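Me: I'm a chemist; would you kindly supply a protein sequence with its structure tokens?

Assistant:
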Amino acid sequence: MNKQDKLIKNNYSKYWETAREKIYGFMDYDKNFLELIYKYSEINDKILDVTCGTGDPFIQELIKKGYKNIYGSDIAYNLLFKSKRNFSQAKYIQSNIQNFGFKNNSFDLVFCVHSSWYFSDFDAALKNMLNISKKTVIIDLFNYNNKNKKKTYYWHKFYGSKIHRFIDNLRHFYHKRYDRIVWNFSVEWRAANVKNIIEFLENQTIEFEFMTTDFKKIEDINKLNLYVRIILIIKK
């Protein structure tokens, strides 16, 4: 396991034990992303939430909707433990999607939201998601382009240091400020090379489309450079 993955598993995951409920909540973006999942799946489909975290809100909402075959995976045991405790109807796997051990076509739909920029190897993660999905993969990502020139946003060596622990002690009083500070003492954010993704998918003759973060289809892929963050839908 490389340094990035270790930081996420052992340190950064502690932030996400409470961040969703205390800072972010159930955002409009999440609600619209769920609508995409509903659109491309059926109630009895086997669905995998990659990097599911605490299960809030995606596993929670899928259960409410009546989905029966929900799986959650995450690199961090502490997050899976909380999700399993709160949403026991789902099944859970502690795993790194970059070297996932499931057989091909194990799930009808695989999705990843709010997380792809933490992958130390995005290409490996995407290929694994494609392999284990029978029908559909939905993932949001940062787009490496002229408006977003850095492949890596940050490298913060102080995560887990005395400085960070001091900041962590303040988080219950200054959530919004902590939310900003934590990026500065945590892990890398990595933008994906969308040009390479398109080339790979076209070579595999796989159908795909991109959407903006307000969930409008990007009709002209030559205009992808206009967007920093986009959603990729792959239909096998």
